[in-house]
Amino acid sequence: MESSELYHVKQQFLLGAYKTLVDLTLPDPSSPDYTPTLIYKARAQIALGHAEDVAKLLPADSEDVTVKAVGALARWMEATGAAEKDASLEELRDLCVEIEGEDAEADEKAKGIVRVLAGTAFALAGEIEEALETLGAGTNTDNLEAVALTVQIYLSINRPDLARKEFDRAKRWAEDDLLLQLIESSIGLVTGKDGYADCNSFYTEQLGNPSLSSPHLLTARGVTRLLRGEISAAKSDFEEAVSQQGGTADAETLAAMTVAAGLGASKHAEVDQLFSRMVAEHPSHPFVVDVNLKAALFDECAAKFQAPPLFQQCNQIIVLLVQLS
Question: What is the C-alpha separation between 25 and 311, in angstroms, rounded?
Answer without folding.
Answer: 67
